[in-house]
Design brief:
This protein has 674 residues and is of the alpha+beta class. It folds into 3 domains: 237 residues, no CATH class; 156 residues, Beta-Lactamase (2-Layer Sandwich); 183 residues, Heat Shock Protein 90. It contains 19 helices and 27 strands.
């Protein structure tokens, strides 16, 4: 299955949107929390506060900025505290005030202003602005508060009033034009601004001046003019409030970013699993294509993956080139990198020098992440090289991705290594099988020649049986050499088992034991199978039954019984191989029935003669049963075993697991055959 690049691009786009919040409300998940904080400031400081924010990601003009209005009840409370000049002016021309605030906000979004500022508005009234930023760089909103008038009888020197500590925050003329004199009387400045305002009609100017006069004569309840130090105190508290909001915003953003990063890494992990694993090189090329797309969000120039292949590391890169090219590193250079952490490569480090030279990347900033672990197949390792120009990168995301990529890379490396070893083994088996084929063919010719010259029927039968076994072995070798040509064929189970019994009769007589067929049906039970596999499976089961059949000093015969039961209601046939003799320990029976690999436990057996000598113990590797189960599973056949004492008598230690009846059940469904 090929990777879906368009889907991966959407994943990257989603991640970028997640880590770039539109505005403060996208982090606060609405304006409820912001309104609560604003209301708290309003109640504590008795000062109205507003928030301006962007409505699109790329702010290009003041039209992309909006004001977060209070609800109607709060609006009524706030209006009581508004400067009467501002209140009257906003009632007459609200668009002028809103435009001025947007222009101030725009200064922050364009990075013309960066600090909180105390400034004079177009009516020469003191206002304050505080930029809300994420990661100290991305503006997500601007806080506004103010409408302050400094009361003075005559002109004051503003620089001396504010002093060096606060003057850097003061903006007398935010947009240039006629500059306010340092020696200023705000009353005169406001009156002059009203007289020169082209947006006001003469009657409006007179009304504003009357309101302003009431303010100065302290005839207004709730609102009052302030001293310079009071204004500075208000500004300082406003800054602390902005810092509080900013801290909360950044804590929320950190959680937001961590969640987005985790979701992206999981999605990237899913995309990695879709890469076709048909061979090592194509997997690496498709993985490298994914890595090229994530350089933008890591903020680096390139990410290169290298996989270990024998004594070298191979990777694909297009760095400093217009096309993708294969690059090979020496394993000894790669292993100089400490594993499982991001390491900055340094030309002055002798351990890194050879690796940097082979990478041929030049003087760029280079970091390396190497995995390292052992498996049954050998040492598995992969290397990721990150190249940047020395600017800040998203290192936490890079480490997370390195961890995911190397896990996948090590897994597929292990699979490729096992496949290569398996192919090598198959090649060796085919070579050996081919070397046996010709001698077996010649041996069959010799037996055919002898059969034509032998008159003794008993000897002739023995040679015929031997010829059959050699012929089967020749066919097995042929199947090993050309498995692709093996196809299922329709076979009768009864006929197949009879062939197996015929092949094993000589071994049974030599043991000695008898093979008895019990309750065999007369009808045909046809199934579609690869005959060679199932025949070998039955031979393995019957061979085990004969091998562990009970005996007495090499004399006497015992039955190995084969039962066949047909269940019409369940449409199944069950074949049972039963012997009486050496049993199987219960733990081994459980492992066999679970299909687990195991080595059969040693069982005391002083009655077994080999070459005239008694054995002390009998053991087995369980391989015949495992091979049979592997073949049967392909056809959804069930294979189970049970081994129980034949009587309740107590066994001596040297007769443990003796006089057991062992049964092997093969259950064959007669439908849904392949």
């Amino acid at each position: 299955m090929a990777i879906d690049i368009e889907s991966f691009k959407k994943t990257i786009s989603t991640y970028k949107d997640r880590i770039t919040p539109l505005n403060l409300f996208s982090l606060f998940k609405g304006n409820e929390l912001v309104n609560i904080l604003r209301k708290g400031y309003f109640l504590e400081k008795q000062a109205p506060i507003a928030v301006y924010f962007n409505t699109i990601r790329a702010v290009k003009s003041i039209d992309d900025l909006e004001n977060s209005l209070n609800n109607e009840r709060e609006e009524r409370e706030i209006r009581k505290l508004n400067n009467p000049v501002c209140l009257y002016y906003r009632d007459c021309h609200p668009e002028i005030c809103n435009e001025f605030d947007r222009k101030i906000t725009f200064k922050y979004y364009t990075n013309e202003w960066k600090l909180p500022h105390l400034y004079r508005c177009h009516l020469q009234i003191w206002d304050m602005a505080y930029p809300l930023k994420v990661k100290d760089e991305l503006v997500v909103g601007v806080l506004f508060v103010g409408q302050n008038v400094i009361e003075s009888e005559g002109k004051i020197n503003l620089f001396s009033e504010f002093g060096n500590a606060w003057w850097k925050y003061v903006k007398l003329n935010p947009f240039g034009g006629e500059k306010i004199r340092l020696n200023s009387n705000q009353k005169d400045d406001i009156t002059e601004a009203i007289d020169h305002d082209e947006n006001l009609q003469p009657v409006e100017k007179e009304n504003i001046k009357n309101e302003f006069s009431k303010l100065l004569n302290k005839e207004m309840k709730g609102f009052k003019s302030v001293e310079t130090q009071e204004l500075i105190d208000h500004f300082e508290k406003f800054i602390r409030f902005g810092e509080l909001i900013n801290k909360l915003l950044n804590e929320l953003y950190k959680l937001h970013e961590e969640l987005a990063e985790k979701e992206f890494v999981n999605s990237f992990n899913t995309h990695l699993t879709t890469i076709d694993m048909k061979d090592r090189e194509s997997w690496m090329q498709e993985c490298s294509e994914l890595l090229r797309y994530i350089t933008e969000i890591i903020k680096c120039k390139e990410i290169i993956l290298f996989l270990k292949n024998d004594s070298k590391f191979e990777g694909f890169t297009s760095f400093n080139s217009s096309f993708i090219q294969k690059k090979v590193l020496k394993a000894r250079d790669v292993f100089s990198i400490a594993p499982n952490r991001l390491i900055k490569l340094d030309w002055s480090n002798l351990l890194h020098k050879d690796l940097l030279h082979r990478l041929e990347i030049g003087d760029h900033n280079i970091q390396a992440y190497r995995s390292h672990h052992y498996s049954k197949a050998g040492l598995i390792s992969s290397l990721i090289i990150e190249v940047d120009d020395g600017t800040a990168i998203n290192e936490s995301l890079l480490v997370s991705l390195c961890n995911v990529i190397t896990k996948h890379a090590d897994l597929v490396s292990n699979l490729f290594l096992l496949n290569e070893q398996q192919q090598s083994f198959k090649d060796q088996v085919n070579e050996v099988a081919h070397s046996f084929r010709t001698p077996l063919h010649l041996l069959l010719d010799d037996i055919d020649y002898l059969l034509n010259s032998i008159e003794d029927e008993k000897i002739k039968d023995r040679f015929t049986e031997s010829r059959g076994r050699i012929f089967d072995a020749k066919n097995d070798l042929k199947a090993l050499l050309d498995k692709a040509k093996e196809k299922p064929e329709r076979c009768d189970v009864i006929v197949l088992i009879k062939e197996v019994i015929k092949n094993m009769t000589t071994k049974a007589k030599k043991h000695p034991c008898l093979i008895s067929m019990i309750n065999w049906p007369v009808q045909e039970f046809a199934v579609e199978i690869i005959k060679r596999q199932i025949k070998n499976a039955f031979i393995n089961l019957l061979d085990n039954a004969i091998k562990y059949s009970y005996h007495t000093g090499g004399k006497g015969e015992y039955d190995v019984k084969i039962f066949i039961h047909h269940s019409k209601s369940e449409n199944k046939v069950q074949i049972i191989f039963q012997n009486y003799g050496i049993g199987i320990p219960p733990d081994d029976v459980e492992k066999l029935n679970r299909g687990e690999p195991y080595k059969r436990s040693e069982v005391p057996d002083t009655k077994k003669y080999v070459g005239g000598m008694k054995l002390k113990k009998r053991s087995g590797d369980g391989l015949g049963f495992s091979i049979a189960m592997q073949f049967f599973n392909k056809y959804n056949w069930d294979l189970n075993i049970q081994s129980d004492p034949a009587d309740d008598n107590i066994r001596k230690q040297d007769e443990k697991y003796h006089r057991y009846v062992t049964k092997v059940f093969v259950t064959i469904p007669l439908e849904n055959q392949i």
